[in-house]
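User: My advisor asked me to double-check a structure prediction for Sulfotransferase family protein before group meeting. I don't want to rely on an old file, so could you generate it fresh from this sequence?
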Amino acid sequence: MDARGTAPVGALPNVVIIGAMKCGTTSLHRYLDLHPDVAMSRRKELNFFVGCADGELDWARGNWWRGPAWYATQFDATAAVRGEASPGYTSPSHPEVAGRLAALIPDARLVYAVRDPVDRAVSQYSHHRREGAETREPEEALLDPGSQYVARGRYLERLSPFLSAGLGDRVTVVAQEQLRDRPRPTMRRLFSCLGIDDDYWSPAMEERRNTAPEQPGDLSGRVRDRLREAFRDDAQRLRDVTGEDFPEWSV
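Assistant: Sure, here is a fresh prediction for Sulfotransferase family protein from the sequence you gave:
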């Protein structure tokens, strides 16, 4: 129920892509929506579980204040699987998300998109440079311990609140490299986890989304080495927890 005690109408989602930023969430949202048994939200990033009870009319700051009834109206109630993709849900800036999600939709499947964490950090840096939000040189920005370039790529740390909330058995991890190099078996595995026809395939699932140039110029080997060291322990723990090897990663 929302803050006014109103029971939600419509249908809440039963799959949520929770992150991470610059890891193929746009492609995953699109590929899932192509399946005849799936209806993803028209707007990709609903950011519902982010924000406070009395919010501002600023989508990026979150929509928690709108209440579950509003959230339910964003989904097709006739679809067997319905969902959204908000990579900000695993942002270190939003520790409240996991508890809220577990309380409202405890049975939902969660999809966690990941990629080589060094490449992810470089991609996020390039994204912010293009937007004008980042003016520092790559070394200063990427190695800044107070920035999110490293924090967002320590995937198990970002996933831990969801595990602590009892959602561990609901999480499917999908590596961007798998989606890029082996799209059909990767989507087949995901469809199977969602309990829908895993034989379905569309050629459009081989299309890549949001593929803007990602290199911030000449990134020195020393910077890459320091980034790899910053990610190494977390990447190994992610391998231990998921049983995935992530052989394409540099970490």
